[in-house]
Amino acid sequence: MTMPERLDPQTGGAKKKERATSGAALGMRRFAGRAALALSFLVATSLFYRSALDHYFYFDDFVFLERSTISSPSDLIEFFSVELNQRGLLDKNHSYRPISTNLFFGLGQLAFGFNPKAFHLLNLLTLAANAMLVALLLCRLGVRTGTGVAFALVYALSSVNFESQLWISVIQELSASFFLLMALLVYVCPEVRGRARTFGSVGLYVIALLCKEMAVTLPALLLLWELVVERTTVRGAVHATAPFWFVSAIYVTLYSIFFDIPEAGPYAVLIGGFVLENLARYARWSAEALFLTSDWRALLLLVAISIAAFLVAPSRVRRSVVLGLLWFLIALGPVIFLPNHSYDYYLVIPFIGLVIAAATLADSLFSFLPRKKLRISADLLLVVGFALVSYPRFAERELAREHQTSSFRAAIGQLRASYPELPDGTSLYFSADPGFPLGQFLKDSGAIFRVVYRNPTLHARPTTPQILRSASRRDATGRLVFRINSDGSLKEHPGNRAALLDGRDTQSVQPDPAKGDGG
After folding, report:
1. Rounded to whole angstroms, how far apart are CA atoms 412 and 114?
2. What residues make up the domain containing 475?
3. What is the pTM of this model?
4. Which of 30, 284, 444, 515 has the smallest number of Cβ neighbours within 10 A?
């Protein structure tokens, strides 16, 4: 306060009030700006993925729906029990993801019932939120707001996120990415300090771990941030990230005690020459998602241009590029050791690193444009061009998935129309045309039927010759046999009605392995 203000209390009070008012106005403008930013991401992702909302449940969705039914408040606590989560999708596929599986599907059923559109909408909202967090992260790295928003939309509309909108179970990757980004942003936010910073970021990290194991890479990403962006000493970086390493140590120790690490099967974790093959595969998928081409010559040319831009960029930009590339490699750590399980949706977190590298390089190049309007035009052209080229790729994948999910919906609809209720212990047997994904339809011995009929005693398996031979006999009680056409329409075995009617007086018919019901 100046001398005249001290001499005149009214003047000093007016100044304080004016500063308070201007501060409130600034806060409102920031809030309005962030709200508009969030709305833009929601609108863009909704327009791009709007058709995905009409898809049916698919594959693992039914297993998670069955495992996450809420009948009492105590079930919410049970969702976090080790015993429940030890019952994985396969005998050797144990995982602890109570938030992204049990809690998500349980509360979803409680709120929306058996409505796939509502679940798909939640996936869409989570993707839009992730895109906004990526934009905030890019701005924190010094990328201009327009370019940051443009590349955050590139991230959201890339093929890396296609599966998350077509398959509800990929909420595991989306939710882990959301809480990982939130933890990182709280950690690097200059306005958050002291215990609020530590407890807030560590708490979000714990939630991310309870969504999926991919989040375990966060301590390494924070250490990388300290070394590359903040330019902290190694000792200072280790000290700053120590709470996260401590949490990781506890998590890995408990995980190894309660859950097996499979050495065989689709989720086997091994070390071998395939690691480099996996790394090359994920790098190729990421390059194709970013540059929108699978032509290796075009990819080489674009990579060469990126390297040239990196060499002439300022040191700040080069550091951000290094951060992004190392982010990609570190975040891939949990999946490159899986020789039998490689999918592009595993890139939801690693791909953020390549977006960081690309955005900082593009921002450096756009800075040479002489006028602000030209830079804004470049950002808009980038987003619109990317969306126009990326959408046909999404439509192609969506068409393939739509055939599968619509055939699932048709088969279930016809079955429910013919058999509104099924006696306890009924076994359903199916054969199918080559175009129908029978193995996915009968996942986990027919979880789809137990969910739809809300009857935990039902079982479904592929038809065997023994079942077909005995389908019309009196000992076929409690069995239903069908053939599924490629479009999902059902053809019933002639003995189905008699078998079901004969079973009405036996409401607890159980599969008899001696007669072939054991599969």
Report:
1. 13
2. 405-515
3. 0.86
4. 30
